[in-house]
Specification:
Elements: E1 22-24, E2 30-32, H1 33-38, E3 52-53, H2 59-62
Antiparallel strand pairs: 1-2, 1-3
Amino acid sequence: MLELRPNCECCDRDLPANSADALICSFECTFCRSCAENKLALRCPNCGGELLRRPIRPAQKLARNPASSVRVGRGSPC
């Protein structure tokens, strides 16, 4: 199950579970649309994988399967 990380790893922008602006790679590295498109050319800086829109978990499922609250950041700039 996807973690649904709460923030952009590049700029630390909040990305709620229902955000259509969250993009992820196959390792679930998470970035906002602005950073992914303008800074990263839709490639994950961690693994080189493609960044795609993160699915939105239906609200009724979030109660039993909540999004992660652990914020992840990169050690180096994007």
